[in-house]
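@channel sequence for tomorrow's demo:
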Amino acid sequence: MSKHQKKNVATLHDVARAASVSPGTVSRALSRPELVAEATRNKILGIVDRLHYLPHPHARNLKLSRPTVIGAVIPRSGISTFSQTIASLNDALEMHGLTLIVSQPEASSQASKHAAYRLLERGADALILLGEDHAPELYRLLEYRGLTHLLLSPIRPPKGSPHVSINHRRAGHIAAIHLIELGHKKFAYVGSATPNNPRAQERLVGVQAELKAHGLALPEGSITNQPHQIDSGRIAVKQILANHKDTTAIICTSDYYTLGVIRALHELRINVPRDISVVSFNNNDFSSFTMPAITTVDLKYQEVGKEAARMVLRLIRKEKVSPVMIEPELCIRETSGPSRF
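structure tokens (generated this afternoon):
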């Protein structure tokens, strides 16, 4: 469809006519689905997707003269990691009189789609979506309606999608290089379940590539996938050391895992960094206050939020934007030191 071709914006009555039901039935199917028969509800929802229908305010074109609300979809599993991003994004938007509303669905494309729909239904003038793994019908809706949106920290963003990315693979290289330069050869990796976290997967790819370049590798049983919880680090350490007692360096996919790792090593009377060095990613606010302070690769999450705010403001003004790539930086503290071998 040409950008200059006028698009027919579907109304509630259009959906009702196509589904051969009353407008009230359509309304109930969207707001109180349990009150509508499953076959009828599924038929209505299919037509809603096909017609790119959105309830008030977008479907009735009742928007204010200037944007006021920005919606962000950040799955619950990413809230702790992206807390600095959300804070800096909110602060930057508030300076321009905009309100940020954050939705925290489960980590799935369908859950994110429904969260995005709810934000749009409640008047969001633009959307910020974490990553790129979103339902195709959501992308079609955003394009068809010409709705302002950008992607936050995608790994492989769709062509033409505005986005602010982090060089996660480079971060993996940085962590591995630091430990290799300290003489370490026996590595382990503590991470999250990668299918739902492509950013963590990309960091692991970077680590493995750097190790391979130096004739090293993560041996079988030295990579643990755990839920994104502090105690997961403690569980992972016990698994790693049961299989590889000669480990001298552990890389954690986030500072939250590192808290559990440091605690477990302390309980086992293993000194950090004299016996085992630990390097992480994120540079959360607490990482410089732990005992010992965490050596971590700063993924510049605050900068991500600021850049996202700048980009969404330009998009709202119909200005051209270019993708932004944030480069990570190593913060050397107290959990990394020379190998004992």
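heads up for whoever presents: The longest strand covers residues 277-282.
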